[in-house]
Specification:
MtpD_C (chains A, B, C, D); two-stranded antiparallel sheet; Dihydroneopterin aldolase (chains A, B, C, D); lyase (chains A, B, C, D); MptD_sf (chains A, B, C, D); EC 4.1.2.25 (chains A, B, C, D); homotetramer
Amino acid sequence: MTEINERDRAVFEAGIKLGALYHQFVGTPISMDTANDLERMIEQSAIVQPYVRSISVSIDRGMVQKKQNPTFRYCELEGRMLHVSLQVLYKNTIAYAELAYDEEQDYPLMSIKKIESM
Amino acid sequence: MTEINERDRAVFEAGIKLGALYHQFVGTPISMDTANDLERMIEQSAIVQPYVRSISVSIDRGMVQKKQNPTFRYCELEGRMLHVSLQVLYKNTIAYAELAYDEEQDYPLMSIKKIESM
Amino acid sequence: MTEINERDRAVFEAGIKLGALYHQFVGTPISMDTANDLERMIEQSAIVQPYVRSISVSIDRGMVQKKQNPTFRYCELEGRMLHVSLQVLYKNTIAYAELAYDEEQDYPLMSIKKIESM
Amino acid sequence: MTEINERDRAVFEAGIKLGALYHQFVGTPISMDTANDLERMIEQSAIVQPYVRSISVSIDRGMVQKKQNPTFRYCELEGRMLHVSLQVLYKNTIAYAELAYDEEQDYPLMSIKKIESM
C-alpha cells in the first residue's frame, strides 16, 4: 500500500468525467441536425467541472443515420455513438483518456491513453 | 368508458415530453456561462420528437448562481430551476403545457394550461 | 377551447410518468440476474409519485440476453426492452397507459389504452 | 511520460464507476420506504460491471426526510444524499474509492482512499 499521489488523482478524475457524461447524456433524443449542438453541450458540461483541461466529443453520424427512426427521423444517443477525448490536469499531471467504440468487443470502451508531468 | 380521442393524445404526448426532458437533463453540470446553451439543447431534444410544435426552456439564473459551488463555480441542473412552455400538436389539437417551479408547494409542477382545436 | 378537465389531468399525468421513468432508467447497467430487481425498482419510483394507482414493469429477457456483452455479461437498459402498464387515478378518472416496443415501427411506443370514470 | 500500469487502470475504473452511478441515478423519485431498495439497485448496477469487487451504497435518510415534499411525500435522489464505498480489482491491484458528501465544501466528493496490491 502506498500514498495516493498526483498521478492517481488525475487518472481518477478522468474516469469520473467519462462515467458521468456517458450516463448523463445516453438516452438524449437526437437527429442529424442536432448532433453538433449536443456534442458541444456535452463538452461544456465537462469543461465546467474541476480539473478538466480540454475535451472533444464527436457523435458517429453514420450510426445516428442508421438508428434514426424512419417515421420520426430521430433516435436516442447511445454510448457506442460517442467518441470522447479528454484531458484532465491535476496539479502538474495530465491524464489523457478516451471513450471509443470497440468494434471487436462491441463495447463503448473507456481507456487511459497517456499520463504526463508538465 | 369512452374512445381515446385527439385531445387525449395531444395531452398525453405533452406529458411524455415534459417527463422525459426533466429526467434526461436533471443532474447535468451547469454554470452561468453554459445555461444558455443547455436551454437551447433541451429545446432541440424536444423538437426532434413527434408532435412537438414548439418549446421554450429557461433556466433560473438566480438559482444557478445560488447553487453554484463557491470553489468549483458550477452546479447541477435541478428540476426547480426549469421553466418550460411546450406546445404539442396532434392532428388538429394543440395542447399547451408548462413546467414551472411552484414556490408554495416547493415543487416543480407540470400542468396543462390550455387545449385548442385548430 | 375548453376548460381543462379531470380526464385531461389523468391522461397528462400518465404521460409524465412514462416519459420520466423511461429517461431516468435507460442506460442502467443490467444483467439477467438483476433484471427482476430493476423492474421492481422502476415500479417503486413510479408508485411514490402523485396519482399513480398501479404499475407493472417487465424487461424483455430475450433482448437482455442478446444485447449482453459476451465478455462482460451485462448490457444497458434500452427503451425497447421495457414493457410498462400504468394506471393513473386523478380524482374519479383512471387513465390506463402503456409503453411497449412496436416491432413494425421499431419504436418504444407509449399509448393511452383506456380512460374510465369510477 | 510513463506506461499505463495496473494501478492506473484500477484507479481509472473506480472513477468511471462512481461518475456513472451518480449520473444514472440522481433524479430518481424516492421515499423513506423505497430508499433501501434503491441502495441495493445502485449496488447491483455497479456489481454487473467489469472489475467491481464490492460496493456499498447508503442514502442519507435524514436528507430524504427533509427534502420530501410534504404533500406528495417523496423527493428525488440527490448526489449529496449518496454515500458509496467501492472496491475495484484490476488484475492484482485493488483501488478503494468513496463518494461522500463534504459538508464544508457543500459538495458530493469522490475520492481515492487506498490502493493495494494483493
